[in-house]
What we know:
Shape: globular
CATH topology of the largest domain: Rossmann fold
Number of strands: 9
CATH class of the largest domain: Alpha Beta
Largest sheet: 6 strands, parallel
Structural class: alpha/beta
Number of domains: 2
Strand order of the largest sheet: 1-4-3-2-5-6
Strand content: 15-25%
Helix content: 40-55%
CATH superfamily of the largest domain: HUPs
CATH architecture of the largest domain: 3-Layer(aba) Sandwich
Amino acid sequence: MKVIRTVSELRSTVEKARAKGLTIGLVPTMGALHAGHISLVDRARSENDVVVVSVFVNPTQFNNANDLATYPRTEEADCAKLEASGADIAFIPTVKEVYPEPDTRQFDLGKVAEVMEGAMRPGHFNGVAQIVSKLFAYSQPTRAYFGEKDFQQIAVIRRMAEIEGFDLEIVACPIMREPDGLAMSSRNVRLTPHQREVAPNIARILRESLEYAASNSLTATKQWVVDRINAYEEMEVEYYEIVDASTMQPVSNWADTESAVGCVTVWLGDVRLIDNIKYPNQQ
Length: 283
């Protein structure tokens, strides 16, 4: 595996590969890699000739300075995992390399970016669009891979790619979970032992809501999930929205959408966890 730290070297490397007719799979990450990330690398490996994995904690998508400061950084361990997974290139630039000048671009991301994470974290998705558009331009991927834990983010990236005219396939990959159901996240390492015991109840309650939803209204289902998560004194729901999977817009009745997804954000101590679940057609 080759470790590349400059944009110019990455560009020249992928241009040579594309000149040979090779396909390129890109896996953008912020490091602190876990099995969920590696599942994306595995998928990219199976579908492309060259796999590029970026490891970069992007400052422009953090609207909380403490969250940026405490985000785990484990470059040496990340490189070992990427080498073992068969990645061809690890792109690990500095902030100065990616942002030699402040990025002042404002993206017209539309309604998919205005709700949920967009409402709670002003500027977050514009920062995501800034870095992902840069990575797409640098690596010229045939396909790019993202995990469905960040369900809304995938919709935002599809919108960015559309308005920027990128010609690539955006591949959404299933959530990877720990054996007890907790969605894998780099933030999980910040949980105390007790919090780590409590956290899987988020996924459990979402799963149980499928049965509840089968005989109850969408509004009642939302309240049921919120009440059960908040029943744990350690946890507080920031939001739980059931949205249309394509538009990300909240719906109020099961009949309003053929593809409903419940998206939740929960504070567990000072750690912010997200998860989601797909509801079968309830009509």
